[in-house]
Design goal:
The structure holds 2 protein chains of 2 kinds. By secondary structure, chain A is an all-beta fold. Helices cover about 0% and strands about 50% of the residues of chain A. In chain A, a hairpin with a 5-residue loop joins strand 5 and strand 6 (about 45-50). Chain A is globular, with a radius of gyration of 14 Å. Chain B has no helices and 11 strands. Classes of the chains: A mainly beta, B mainly beta.
Chain lengths: ~120, ~120
């Protein structure tokens, strides 16, 4: 069965520092992978997605993620964190679309940003 | 519509009463998902529709929970004989199923409080 693990429940970084949020997935075939962000009082917003092709994907708000099949990982990175990035981040995996397009989410990583 | 719409946005109900939560997906989206998010928790998958059928309802926590979808459009999640542990935000998402079509767009959620 598909599953997603986000090992870090809560991370605190200083503003301007770099960020990496970890995501590991379990899926038998090539997965579709996503990162969503949920800001306080806001809905879920898609940051970026990987379907195929280049394993380094760029998203909105300066985020990027790298798909590493050998490590079953899809870690989210940002070179310089802004205070407005404080939010909860969810990694998700889907099977290959069509009638199998279920989405499974990790439990999330809460990001706090120190001034 | 422009986005996924959920109603009501907030619902307070007495323990033991039935509630209905509504989701209007983005027009043309054939896949529809329901998730539950308890306070401070991640997204818990409930059920997934492809068209009007539900190939995966494995996440429904008990027989008090049911969902239906008609006209490949609106979906209703019904919780019978509500319990306090049902208190959560219920999120609906939709996606256009097809090649690479599993990007899901989320509604703002219905915050259910059982008192």
């Amino acid at each position: 069965a598909q599953s997603v693990t986000q090992p870090d429940i809560h991370i605190t970084v200083s503003e301007g520092a770099s960020l990496e949020l970890r995501c590991n997935y379990s899926y038998g075939a090539t997965p579709y992978l996503f990162w969503y962000v949920q800001s306080p009082g806001q809905g879920l917003q898609l940051l970026l997605k990987y379907f195929s092709g280049d394993t380094l994907v760029q998203g909105i708000k300066g985020f990027e993620a790298e798909f590493k099949r050998s490590q079953s990982s899809f870690n989210l990175r940002k070179p310089s964190v802004h205070w407005s990035d404080a939010a909860e981040y969810f990694c998700a995996v889907a099977s290959g679309g069509g009638s199998q397009g279920n989405l499974i989410f990790g439990k999330g990583t809460k990001l706090s940003v120190k001034p | 519509g422009a986005g996924v719409s959920q109603s009501p946005s907030n619902k307070v109900t007495e323990k033991g009463k039935d509630v209905e939560l509504r989701c209007d997906p983005i027009s043309g989206h054939t896949a529809l998902y329901w998730y539950r998010q308890r306070l401070g928790q991640g997204l818990e998958f409930l059920i997934y529709f492809q068209g009007n059928s539900a190939p995966d309802k494995s996440g429904l926590p008990s027989d008090r929970f049911s969902a239906e979808r008609t006209g490949e459009s609106v979906s209703t999640l019904t919780i019978q004989r509500t319990q306090q542990e049902d208190s959560a935000v219920y999120l609906c998402a939709s996606s256009f199923s097809g090649v690479g079509g599993t990007e899901a767009f989320f509604g703002q959620g219905t915050r259910l409080t059982v008192v």
